[in-house]
């Protein structure tokens, strides 16, 4: 029988072991541009290792449907990876703790449509999973010449859903 992972709302507290929630919540850290812009300053712990640099890419991912079949997670041992949606649609974020080099029990979060995320370096995570079009995201991650991808395929896939 396939195990079901229930989706929960994305909150900074619940997501903290895996990364950062990027959102303009609470009072801004600074007011800039003649008082017309709130700056929510330094919201992500970017980490590109000693042999990498920050790069900005644009991803265009195909929308997925719920329930979602989770059969693989990946991690980037050499750098963090931030996803900033170029839309206001919720998207699914799947993560798993590390257990001696393999992923533990996955968890699933749903953004509120105004949140981005930053996976900490080495965090097991699912692939980019928009639930509606467009699937456009700005991605800030490590650019470098050394390998930066580990994949883990589950023996038995998980079902990710709201129930």
Number of helices: 1
CATH class: Mainly Beta
Biggest β-sheet, characterized? Answer: 7 strands, mixed
The first-to-last residue Cα distance is 16 Å
- Overall average residue pLDDT: 96
Number of strands: 16
Low-confidence stretches: none
Radius of gyration: 16 Å
**Total domain modules:** 1
Strand content: over 45%
Q: Predict the CATH topology.
A: Jelly Rolls
Order of helices and strands: EHEEEEEEEEEEEEEEE
Query: Which structural class do the helices and strands define?
Result: mainly beta
Inertia-based shape: globular
Helix content: under 10%
Any idea what the CATH architecture is? Answer: Sandwich
CATH superfamily: Ureidoglycolate hydrolase
What tags apply to this protein structure?
163 residues; mainly beta; Jelly Rolls; seven-stranded mixed β-sheet; 2% helix
Write up what this structure looks like.
- The protein is an all-beta fold and 163 residues long.
- Helix content is 2%, strand content 48%.
- Strands 1, 6, 8, 11, 13, 14 and 16 form a seven-stranded mixed β-sheet that branches. It has a five-stranded antiparallel β-sheet with strand order 2-12-7-15-5, with no helix packed on it. Strands 3-4 form a two-stranded antiparallel sheet.
């Amino acid at each position: 029988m396939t195990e079901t992972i229930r989706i929960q709302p994305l909150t900074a507290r619940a997501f903290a072991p895996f990364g950062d929630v990027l959102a303009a919540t609470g009072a801004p850290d600074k007011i800039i541009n003649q008082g017309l812009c709130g700056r929510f300053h330094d919201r992500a712990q970017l980490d590109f290792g000693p042999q990498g640099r920050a790069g900005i890419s644009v991803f265009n991912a195909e929308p997925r449907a719920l329930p979602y079949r989770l059969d693989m997670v990946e991690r980037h041992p050499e750098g963090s990876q931030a996803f900033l949606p170029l839309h206001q649609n919720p998207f699914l974020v799947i993560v798993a703790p590390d257990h001696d080099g393999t992923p533990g029990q996955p968890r699933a979060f749903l953004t509120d449509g105004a949140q981005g995320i930053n996976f900490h370096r080495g965090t097991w995570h699912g692939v980019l999973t928009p639930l509606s079009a467009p699937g456009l995201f700005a991605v800030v991650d490590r650019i470098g010449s050394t390998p930066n991808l580990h994949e883990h395929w589950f023996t038995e896939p998980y079902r990710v859903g709201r129930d």
